[in-house]
Write a structure and sequence with these properties.
There is one protein chain. The chain is an all-alpha fold and about 325 residues long. The chain has 14 helices and two strands, in the order ααααααααααββαααα. It has one domain. The protein has helices spanning about 15-40, 45-70, 80-105, 110-115, 120-130, 135-155, 155-160, 165-185, 195-210, 220-225, 240-260, 265-275, 275-285, 295-310, and strands at about 225, 235-240. The longest helix is centred in the N-terminal third of the chain and has 26 residues, at about 15-40.
């Protein structure tokens, strides 16, 4: 196995159960955030603008916490800079960008299924680049999880005509997601999750500011009220409240939990547990947004849960 870019603390105790709980909670929060983000997008705010607000809001919130509690943790060493830039731009920013580009050309479920090839890419990287031993049941769990996701989005029965560009963007998103997880796994050996995310989201914000300048941001949208849609159509909230929930509940908390989980579990297993996200997203869509959820989708959710349980049995 090649050396990590930063020395890993040998004395740190790993708590696998805590790692699984953190990764699962992150996936649940991301699934809930899907409904929040979809409601915000219905106001006319573009995907790029939403990602821009999400990145800057998360960066400011995390930096504020550190400035109050431990400002010294914001110091960035020169040797860390290349990895943190890669984490912020190639990881955090590109995951959102390629996903948004994909869903403009593909059904959301199909795009999400392709993006969740990332755990398989992580496992392949661990096996063939780091020469790590990946147990057979991990490969079986990955196969089960992908099959379950295919059932959830009804790939076979949907008859969807796939856009070549959309598929390529979704595949790029899968590589960005795998890059994000692998970089985070190594950098957390020396840098704590909060400061890593603060720098990562700040650099992602710089990327978005170049792509879509702030001076043309439609600020009036944030002060308007919008219906929550679906089964909650009679209820309204200001858009800024939904954006705040997206930043704190749908971004800061789950990203912190996922990166913290990498201190207790290998990236391969964290990636498998994160596959809970589309399961929760489908349930949120059914309960909140009145989206259909049939027996096939429920069967797919059970298969994904079985895959996660199988991955947990691999020591």
């Amino acid at each position: 196995m090649s050396e990590a870019p930063f020395p890993v603390e040998p004395a740190r105790r790993r708590h696998p159960r805590l790692g699984y709980a953190m990764a699962a909670t992150a996936a649940v929060l991301w699934g809930i955030n899907g409904g929040i983000s979809k409601t915000i997008l219905s106001t006319g705010l573009s995907s790029e603008r939403l990602a821009q607000v999400r990145s800057l809001g998360a960066a400011l919130a995390l930096a504020a916490v550190l400035l109050v509690t431990a400002p010294g943790r914001l110091r960035l060493k020169r040797r860390e800079l290349p990895y943190v830039i890669a984490f912020g731009v190639l990881g955090l920013a590109f995951v959102q960008w390629f996903y948004f580009l994909a869903i403009h050309r593909l059904a959301i479920g199909v795009a999400l299924l392709i993006e969740y090839l990332a755990p398989l890419l992580v496992a392949l990287w661990a096996r063939f680049y780091y020469r790590e031993t990946v147990r057979r049941r991990i490969w079986v769990a990955l196969g089960l999880a992908l099959a379950g996701l295919a059932l959830i989005v009804n790939v076979v029965g949907g008859g969807t005509s796939l856009s070549t560009a959309g598929v390529l963007f979704a595949l790029a998103g899968a590589f960005a997601y795998a890059t994000y997880v692998l970089l985070a796994e190594h950098v957390v050996g020396e840098r704590d999750p909060v400061s890593l995310l603060a720098w990562g989201f700040l650099l992602a914000s710089v990327f978005w500011a170049v792509l879509v300048p702030w001076w043309s941001f439609p600020g009036h949208v944030l002060t308007e009220s919008t219906s929550l849609g679906g089964n909650l159509a009679s209820r309204h909230l200001p858009v800024w409240v939904l954006v705040t929930l997206m930043v704190l509940v749908g971004t800061v908390a789950p990203f912190f939990l996922l990166i913290s989980a990498l201190r207790h579990l290998p990236a391969t297993r964290v990636g498998i547990v994160a596959m809970l996200e589309p399961v929760v997203g489908a349930l949120v869509g059914w309960i909140w947004l009145s989206e259909s959820l049939g027996g096939t989708q429920l069967a797919g959710a059970l298969v994904v849960l079985a895959a996660i349980g199988l991955a947990q049995t691999a020591r």
